[in-house]
Amino acid sequence: CQLTRALYEDPAHPAAHKYMAFNTMYTDTGLMGIYGEVDKFSFDFFVNCARQEMNRLASDITDDEVDDIREKMKAVILQSASNTPQVLEEIGRQILCHGRRI
Description:
By secondary structure, the chain is an alpha+beta fold. It has helices at 2-7, 43-59, 63-80, 84-98; strands at residues 18-25, 30-37.
């Protein structure tokens, strides 16, 4: 991921302590974004890197990148299926968003 490479270019002084993408679906809309844990000196750099990567993904993503991301998502889904708290969280989210379990 280009965002990870940019944020951790200097391993001794990373631009973010940690970050995570999120996606929440509602019945008629959705919300996606990035959470980041950064210090005040890295905030602008983090926001600019995240914005540039999201813009790139919106307009300039290759088929190979899509395939790679798809495979990574399959692995995450399979791993989370054996984690009871994550399963319960997903069930709750589905009920809140859709009124039923999907």
